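For practice. Any example?
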Amino acid sequence: MLPQAVSEHYAAQARLIVATLTLTRREWARMTEDFDTSWRVVGPRMLALTTSAQLGAARSGAAYVPEALAELGTPVEPVAEVVPAAFAGVASDGRPLDSLLEHSVVTAKTAVGNGVAPAEALAAAGRWLDMVVHTQVADAARGAASVGIAARPKVGWVRMVNPPCCSRCAILAGKWFRSNQGFQRHPRCDCRHIPSLEDTADNVGTDPNALFASGQVKGLTSGQAQAIAEGADPARVINATRKGSGMTTTEAAVKGRVRLTPDGIYKVASSPEQARDLLRTHGYLR
């Protein structure tokens, strides 16, 4: 059964994302056809709003981990403390957040260069910006939760999907992962990180086969759907036709130095202990 702490955390996160998008859309509406000049006014406010939301999301992500473990009857004391501020002002691929947000202006300029009217270009760039803000706030919560899990020996996590979901997420649903295994995701992914010990993972698991059988998986080709309906293993079908993961990158330069993201750390760490050491080195734990 899903711990109440998880439901409350994700409901709060959803409210935070909606509230943030309401404010960032209001700022974007102030953009004019003079893209660069108006962005100099809009950009700093956009950065402040998104950074603040990231900080709130990260605090919530770090806090719900011990609460969920306690509800499952498996409390585990951390060996280090999560630093929520490490997830604010930085994009989930490691670059400075302001440079990612500013790409909305590049998107609008590119559209105009391709013959799109300025007003339509701004609307399209605004939709792109919505996706970015949504993803960056959600990723701050996920990142802090993953670090909170990594800070607790022997604790891993179960991937719980929020159906309907895409095929890439469906085949990973219900699986237990060690703390140093990164959380694969795509833009606007709303899958959940459920902290758990391996021997209690079934308490919060989801059966991928049930998702496919109930028609709750989106984006299947007719061939994929037919193969799965005829009894083929969904994971084999999806992985056989996938050309790219669409997941986030693992590292980027920040403030003149290379700083690994949590996902980058999980990728290179050979053990949970090494992951914790690297998380401390890069400022995510203290």
Remarks:
- The radius of gyration is 20 Å.
- Confidence is low (pLDDT under 50) at residues 243-256.
- The chain has one domain: 4-281.
- The longest strand covers residues 155-160.
